[in-house]
Amino acid sequence: MKIEIEKKWKKEVEDKNKEIEKMKPVFNEYEKEFELQKKLEPIKKNFPQFSETRIITEEEYVKKLQEWINDNDFFSKMKKGFSAKRDGFNSKIWHKAVDGKGKTLVIIKTKQNFIFGGFTKVGFKYSQNGENSNDSNAFIFSLRNDKGDRIPAKFTYKQNGRAIYSDLSRGPIFGGSYPDFWLVSNLQPGYSNFGYSYNPPNGITYDTNEAKSYLAGSYNKWVVDEVESYFI
């Protein structure tokens, strides 16, 4: 009788432990979400235009974007018109949201914890065959690398007629011919060929590993965690 009770007790303990193991990922997600929302509290309070962000967790980043865009009307009125996690990792959904909107801010966060993106005043177009757009005010930027040891930086456009590229089969593309960065149709794999249409930092030369890895850690060995696009 005692042996049977012990077996039953052990079985109950094992079952309970299995249930706990199954729930661990859920608990971890709740914990991550709690920590994220805690970090976002000052952003939501002081910068309501970023009240829905899941990427911009530092007030320094907001202030840098505000400084770089230098357009109070846009910055005060802009809204989060697209989120890959909310709306879907799909280039056609992204284009449906952003095409024809004019001034557009794109922010990308990778699973490797890089944060970068670009801004254009002319905006993206509905194009099935692909179309370059010139934009003297366009720029790309880096807010965070994987180690957090680089300060946020803005990179100006080279005026080569390829500020952005619109193509329904791909997501946001900054630069043309050999874009400085772009996302494929499901918005998750990405490529970075930094320095072709935008000026890299002093000391970094286009078509080197250092240039290709500057924005996202490598030319193509990075995966997108979230894409956010803002416009009026």
Automatic annotation (TrEMBL):
InterPro entries the UniProt entry points to: TLDc_dom
Residue span, TLDc domain: 55-232
Higher taxonomy: Eukaryota, Metamonada, Anaeramoebidae, Anaeramoeba
The protein's name in its UniProt record: TLDc domain-containing protein
